[in-house]
Every structure is written in structure tokens, then in C-alpha cells.
Write a structure and sequence with these properties.
single chain, alpha/beta, Quinone Oxidoreductase, Chain A, domain 1, Rossmann fold, 6-stranded parallel sheet
């Protein structure tokens, strides 16, 4: 099969397109998917560069998100037929631990992600547990379908489950152009919140307003935390979603009202921020981490995507053979929304 391999860690140039990779063999509870589209995530960039604590067998296949057709069923699989159009929840769990049994499977001690811990979706075929699949509407294109899962499930758990946003609250989403941010802006707006967002690009801020942002801040013109503080009448916002990490953490805390919540799904600029604990306890702030989502949350948010209430934002589509160029483009940070590989 055609695939993009990671033979060694490094820059985008290390990615290698091949046409003779053996097809994966599905296990008893798995389905072999014929991949039509696979979207990029910043997780892919991190794995490509090398994560010190992550041990994978090289060459490795990246890619967490996938939309495709069922090609083959494992011996124990029921409920699907060859040709079914599906998307996959990229989170893999044991199904037996206390967290899985309680329905909070993203806390599973054996939690893994397609393309990070096991071979992923930059290929013509990928094997996925059948319990991770959801049928997609017949009129939904492969590209937006593949763009949705990881970012929407992540943003949904962050805002709806962890931050428990409510109508009328002020929600600040940092970095308007990222995939998680474009999902979070829409989710917060759908929940009845006033949505603030930031960028250094006026073009991205205009796009953010088109998908639901109410208040936009160009941090090249004014420090964003100062702007948010003044725009809220020196009250602060109820919730900040910060996936940037070390570079923004201190200002994210400063932007919160008393009793506010900071939710964190990642740390793209580093994991070791400065923090004044007196500020946290005196203002009674909550700092909430989150990774991906459980199966119920995945189903909830994808239902809204399938209904058209939430819409994946796709910036650019590359053919599978140009995965290296797609990585280089995503690393520039100029995109608004998702970068997607068209596979079949």
C-alpha cells in the first residue's frame, strides 16, 4: 500500500513516501479501513521531531485522524459492513481498567493515540478497533470528516466537561487559527458564551469572527492580556483555553476573573511556565488539564458535526505524497483551521 513513513526523527524532510508498504492485518476486534482522508495535528509534528518519553518502532506511520471506508472486518466484529463510511476516535484504551469501566476512558493507564503510539493514518489502510468507529452521513465529504475528530473531541471535553461552560460566560480561546481553537470557538458560541480570541493576523481574526468569535484581539497591536482585562471592565473572563503553554500561561491566569478556570490541552511552547501560587489561591482559580475525550464525549460532539451545528474548518488539502510539504506548511503557523491529506 501507499504510505508516508517516518524512518528517523527530524524535520519535515525526513518523511518518506512509499508505495510498497504491507497492509496491516486487523485483529479480531478491529476493522481495516480504506483511508480517504487523514488530517494533520501538532501531535504529528511532535512525534516526527521525537518525544523523549515516547518509544516507537521506526519506520513509523504518523496520523491520528481518519475518514474512510470499511474494507475488512475482524473475526469478532459486528455492526459494520464492507463499504460503510466512517470516522475513527483516535484514542485507544484497554476497556478493562477502572476508568474505562466508569466511562472515563481517556484516563485509561494504557491510553494510546493512533499515529503516536501505534501506526497511524498517513496510509491507504489502517487497522482501528471497531468500537472506535462512527458512521458518517452519506453527503459528508471525506476531507471535513477527517478534519473533525481530534480537535473537536479535545475542545468539547475541555469546555463542556472540564470547564463546564454556561450560557452568558466569557470564554477566551488563544490562537484563533489552530484546529482546536476553531473547534473551541464554535463550541463556546453554541453554548451561549461570549467568545474572545487572539491572533497576530487580522485575516485570521476576520475568519474567527465568521465562525463565532465576538471579540478579537491582535496581540501585535496590544498585549492580549491587557486588552482582555480592559475589554471586560477589569473583571476578566470566566474561562481561558490555553494550548500554547509556557509562553502564555502567566498571562492566561491574569486574564481570569476571580473563581475563573484555565483549561490546558497542550504546551506547544514548553511545559515549564512561571506561576505565582499566591495569585492562584487568593483569586480561587482552577487550572484544569485535559487530554482527548472519552467515547461518550466523542459521540456527542461528532453528532453535532454530522448535524452541521459545528463545522470543521479546513485550510488546505495536500495529496498523501506531499505529506512533507504539509508538515512544513503547518509548522509555519499561517493556517486557519486544519491541514488535510487526501489519500484515496
Amino acid at each position: 500500500m501507499k504510505a508516508v513513513l517516518l524512518p528517523r526523527y527530524g524535520g519535515p524532510e525526513v518523511l518518506e513516501y512509499v508505495e510498497d508498504r504491507p497492509e496491516p492485518v486487523p485483529g479480531p476486534d478491529e476493522v481495516l479501513l480504506h483511508v480517504h482522508a487523514a488530517s494533520l495535528n501538532h501531535l504529528d509534528l511532535a512525534v516526527r521531531k521525537g518525544i523523549p518519553t515516547l518509544k516507537v518502532t521506526l519506520p513509523h506511520i504518523l496520523g491520528a485522524d481518519v475518514a474512510g471506508e470499511v474494507a475488512q472486518l475482524g473475526s469478532d466484529v459486528t455492526g459494520f459492513e464492507p463499504g460503510d463510511r466512517v470516522v475513527a476516535n483516535p484514542g485507544l484504551t484497554c476497556g478493562r481498567c477502572e476508568f474505562c469501566i466508569a466511562g472515563d476512558d481517556s484516563l485509561c493507564p494504557d491510553y494510546r493515540i493512533l499515529g503516536e503510539h501505534v501506526p497511524g493514518t498517513y496510509a491507504e489502510y489502517v487497522a482501528v478497533p471497531a468500537r472506535n468507529l462512527l458512521p458518517i452521513p452519506v453527503d459528508m465529504d471525506w476531507v471535513p470528516a477527517a478534519a473533525a475528530p481530534l480537535v473537536f473531541m479535545t475542545a468539547w471535553r475541555l469546555l463542556v466537561t472540564r470547564a463546564a461552560i454556561r450560557p452568558g460566560e466569557d470564554v477566551l480561546v488563544l490562537g484563533a487559527g489552530s484546529g482546536v481553537s476553531t473547534a473551541a470557538i464554535q463550541i463556546a458560541k453554541l453554548a451561549g458564551c461570549t467568545v474572545y480570541t487572539t491572533s497576530s493576523s487580522d485575516a485570521k481574526l476576520r475568519r474567527a469572527k465568521e465562525i463565532g468569535a465576538d471579540v478579537v484581539v491582535n496581540y501585535k497591536e496590544m498585549p492580549w492580556s491587557k486588552a482582555v482585562w480592559e475589554l471586560t471592565g477589569k473583571r476578566g473572563v470566566d474561562v481561558v483555553l490555553d494550548h500554547v503553554g509556557e509562553a502564555t500561561f502567566k498571562d492566561s491566569l491574569r486574564s481570569l476573573r476571580k473563581g475563573g478556570r484555565l483549561v490546558i490541552p497542550g504546551a506547544t511552547t514548553g511545559p515549564m511556565p512561571q506561576i505565582d501560587l499566591r495569585y492562584v489561591f487568593w483569586r480561587q482559580l482552577s487550572v484544569l488539564g485535559s487530554t482527548m475525550a472519552n467515547r461518550r464525549e466523542f459521540g456527542e460532539v461528532m453528532k453535532l458535526v454530522f448535524m452541521g451545528r459545528l463545522k470543521p474548518v479546513v485550510d488546505r488539502v495536500f495529496p498523501l505524497a506531499e505529506a512533507a510539504q504539509a508538515h512544513a506548511y503547518l509548522e509555519k503557523g499561517e493556517q486557519f483551521g486544519k491541514v488535510v491529506l487526501r489519500v484515496a
